[in-house]
Amino acid sequence: MPCRIAALLLLASLLGACDTLSTAGDATLSCKPIHADFPWGALSGLTADESGPDILYAVHDHNLPDPEIYVLDISSSPALIKNRILLRRQGRSPDYDLEGVAQRTGGGFWLASEGKPGRGLPNLLVHVDDEGRVVDEVALPASMTPNKTKAGFEGIAVDGSGGEEQVVAVFQRSWRDDPEGLLKIARYRVRDKQWFFYHYPLDAKKGAGLSAITSLGNNRFLVLERDNRPFFKARIKRIYAITLPDHGATSSPLTVLNKALILDLLGVHNQLLCGASGKLEGMSSSKDGKLYLITDDDGKGNARLLEVPALPLIPGHVEIND
């Protein structure tokens, strides 16, 4: 039952034990801690299992060595990391900075690895099987290389399957060739290895970016737009709906997407008392209509899992600026 925040604010702050909160508006946000029997942390990406409502998958970033996929059982509180899938490329641990994960309909996962220009590491889409073996690595077109910055791929989603499979990745920040206030969203069509790019309009010209994306099907997605601040200092933590058009561009000018506000997380988080003070990182929608988000703990093993049991009405179509 939702906590009555006004009455229990002092008590919950002392006990640190409020799992659910009631909010103004149509959304309710709940929170649970995460536990594992081994060292963990630095959670950066999240995806829901297609076969049932109780399993999520997460990845960690470069703050921990040896990239892997965590298997989370969320049927109780705290959520339990019950297994981990170590990634292997030709029998060795690959040098990835994982920022996103999305489960494929046909099995396995697509991962987003953020590039590190100082270390010569490219931004990559990485296809792995259910055992964590690397099947394919897909780099951005070479024409984009001169404009890259250290802020690259940050979230990933998969829409469609088989010959219709497409992988969509968001960039964390604008690159050198992006007009002020815009950043790129990339779509990769697997069947013919074709890239398309779009521009996403940010709420702030400086300090804002995209952290995660999740598919709603039929070219419709939710994106998490945020600043790089923890909640108690944050100004932008918002979820928007977008629709990607069938057409796209490979070079400027790019189509500028319209977006529809779904949820302002600062409005609901101000009353959240479960210790989720970190930056938001991963986000995933589930088959039963829930939305999950995860907070970044920079490797400290104290990340929190946030759940929106029922989102406000999501527009069936978001118009595109041609």
Descriptive terms for the model:
6-stranded mixed beta sheet; disordered N terminus; 43% strand; 9-stranded mixed beta sheet; 322 residues; disordered C terminus; globular; 2 helices
Care to give the gist of this entry?
This protein is mainly β and 322 residues long. It contains 2 helices and 23 strands.
Textual characterization of the structure:
This protein is mostly beta strands and 322 residues long. A hairpin with a 5-residue loop joins strand 9 and strand 10 (134-139). The longest helix is centred in the N-terminal third of the chain and has 11 residues, at 5-15. The strands form 4 sheets. Strands 1, 2, 3, 4, 5, 6, 20, 21 and 22 form a 9-stranded mixed beta sheet that branches. A 6-stranded mixed beta sheet has the order 11-12-13-14-18-23, with no helix packed on it. The protein has a 4-stranded antiparallel beta sheet with strand order 7-8-9-10, with no helix packed on it. The chain has helices at 5-15, 265-269, and strands at residues 20-21, 29-36, 43-48, 55-60, 68-73, 79-86, 98-103, 109-113, 124-128, 134-139, 153-159, 166-171, 182-189, 194-201, 208-217, 220-227, 237-243, 255-257, 260-264, 280-285, 291-295, 304-308, 320-321.
